[in-house]
Amino acid sequence: MKNLIVSLLILVFSVPAFCQTDEAGIKQTVISFFDGMRKADTAMMRSAIAKDVVLQSVANKKDGTTALVTESMTDFMATVAKPHKDVYDERITFNDIRIDADLAMVWAPYKFYVGQTFSHCGVDVFQLMKTDRGWKIIYIVDTRRKDKCVE
User: Fold this and answer.
1) What is the pTM of this model?
2) Domains and their CATH numbers in the chain
3) pLDDT tens digit string along 116-129?
């Protein structure tokens, strides 16, 4: 009986540790992506993404309608790698992380700065997949606006 109780206690306390490890790995993947962007280091950015990552934005058009805009990750990285005077700094807050087996979702409000100048804000939503090389971003979709930023 004593062994059964000890085994159950070990099981109960080890399950959150596994979840924390996945959550930490997920956060680190997203952080690496943005650290790479701040450093204009596309190799660092690539280390955080899957080969066929999809990059999209939910955009408000001038006529008031909403559109889903798909961007090329290759073009995005070329923009990041192009010499620029100011740092591209996307400051995110990890608001919600959900995990089911090898799939994870991150909901992250952000504020984007060029150097010290505020540009826009919104929410990034990341989908990640656990691979043999760790968590990789497979999908990014965001919103963009100039006001009503989430704190």
Assistant:
1) 0.83
2) 2-143 (3.10.450.50)
3) 999 999 999 999 99
